[in-house]
Amino acid sequence: xxxxxxxxxxxxxxxxxxxxxxxxxxxxxxxxxxxxxxxxxxxxxxxxxxxxxxxxxxxxxxxxxxxxxxxxxxxxxxxxxxxxxxxxxxxxxxxxxxxxxxxxxxxxxxxxxxxxxxxxxxxxxxxxxxxxxxxxxxxxxxxxxxxxxxxxxxxxxxxxxxxxxxxxxxxxxxxxxxxxxxxxxxxxxxxxxxxxxxxxxxxxxxxxxxxxxxxxxxxxxxxxxxxxxxxxxxxxxxxxxxxxxxxxxxxxxxxxxxxxxxxxxxxxxxxxxxxxxxxxxxxxxxxxxxxxxxxxxxxxxxxxxxxxxxxxxxxxxxxxxxxxxxxxxxxxxxxxxxxxxxxxxxxxxxxxxxxxxxxxxxxxxxxxxxxxxxxxxxxxxxxxxxxxxxxxxxxxxxxxxxxxxxxxxxxxxxxxxxxxxxxxxxxxxxxxxxxxxxxxxxxxxxxxxxxxxxxxxxxxxxxxxxxxxxxxxxxxxxxxxxxxxxxxxxxxxxxxxxxxxxxxxxxxxxxxxxxxxxxxxxxxxxxxxxxxxxxxxxxxxxxxxxxxxxxxxxxxxxxxxxxxxxxxxxxxxxxxxxxxxxxxxxxxxxxxxxxxxxxxxxxxxxxxxxxxxxxxxxxxxxxxxxxxxxxxxxxxxxxxxxxxxxxxxxxxxxxxxxxxxxxxxxxxxxxxxxxxxxxxxxxxxxxxxxxxxxxxxxxxxxxxxxxxxxxxxxxxxxxxxxxxxxxxxxxxxxxxxxxxxxxxxxxxxxxxxxxxxxxxxxxxxxxxxxxx
Length: 772
Hints:
The protein is α/β, with parallel strands linked by helices and 772 residues long.
């Protein structure tokens, strides 16, 4: 048995999404403010902290609906129930649908969840909905509070000047404001059975939750009790603070903040020999008794004089109880002081320094504290679930017979906090191994561990199987709803099975440490020179773009198109900067019009603008270079175009016009022609020297183009880029026109995207509802 997927609706930015869970570790990725944290908090509130819901957890577009219900109540005839109020409430209530995949032989574990006697295995669903306990009670309480506020408002009298005093703000101004204070009083989570035959596949990242029949009654009790053990490591770990030490609503423990506190709790739950002693604890108990007796003798001898002085004032008398000092040693108390946990530091032994020194736990770096704490928390979660040590004896005394839940769900928020990049990778690789490290969890174990991790780290993504990623994409107001919401995309469905492109993309992302899943936009680059120089172009000439989170990927024109399925699936704004790669009979040549040349670049032939002829590529306008994916996302290609240049100094005009037209073939010669005077005087070797010679040859631009093309055949392009970056006057160099146009396009689109996400009318509505 395992969790197949969950569907979340009407919760913050998650208007209606499905999150498919991997058999082992599921990674939630996406740009900032895309809904990853909302998903983790939703799971926490529905499954762990059911008393922590707030009215702000309702999706923003439903706030006005809530107030409309309040207005309807106020205008209704007394003692008359509005006919559709229940349906209105259910359409806005936060909901979590929990779907289990149950195998043969496990039916006895889920008997209370069976939708019918005809069910023969597979999916089983439970809906948890945060809804009114009693709509009539909620309505009456709201109307009573509103009437009391109205009575106070009506009781205001004119002042001495005959003018009516300004009415103060009285609570509740509306139903939303009422629920800000009374939500927990009137709302609770109610569970319902779902029908597996009515499961609907999401469309473009948007889920369609099944509608329950009218009058469908909730289940009694907690339908997931005894099926799922849930633990959590949240993002706010607060090292050095006091221990949390609390339990969630299902009795699952959350880790203490200090590692010594975690050790103390682990000892008390699993190891304490004084708690339900077993035969193997006898040796430890004898040692504790002997220590107590020896210490008591020392204390009695030490206090003889003090007790004698007390007796000198008449106490104790003949019938009074006598004083005696005794100790009660509890080993777990030894873990309560500041030096309970220390770090040993190896040193070079000298006359004054021992071979090892000890430092308190707070003296270790935050990264190591975080890593050790999380690893120990995972071990504690595993042993708590498996009832290791004293926990097993404690469970045996309960009425449930110490039944171990078949599923262990662990939620981990942002494990990368304070961790070095390599340590992030080690943690995510080892976390699942630690959680399944018990002998009971090996082989064909009936117990299943599943982990959900939210992260902003490309290093964590790097160590996770590609198909286990779930991408959260922000949708602007008006695209998915009247307010900004999110959709969730399953990366395992991008390429299907056995696809060569999938294999290439997976290997490429592993090699590139790709941050594509967290970016506002992506720029695909042709080669190493572009990878080094384009970031400088952005920094120097495109200040707004420089503030955005851009993923720069060096992929090459012959492979860029292979990322298309992924980029289309993500719906991310993309600029592809590539080379025109002119050729003739399959052989690369210097770009020339009217020569029957075709491009050797698969990106230009198969993706954008889907043209073979170099003449057609040079003639293509901007519209041919842009592909609109949806309202939000688009792809634009940028490749070399014709450059108008002033006549070279000393060249033989032979009646030529005062300007020349260069047709560059690569980034390097386009950059050089754009800054011809700079390269004509730039000192250096390699490509720099050959470019300088070409520009000082006195020949026309066509000859210069051929010279640059020949130099680039075997030139070291990365070395060329480094020489240019190091040159004096680099910050004043011009950007090749085709790159400048592409960067200007993506910058403008990002500005428009930001405006769409922060539409003024939606923001005003939110402010008005919140302030009321």
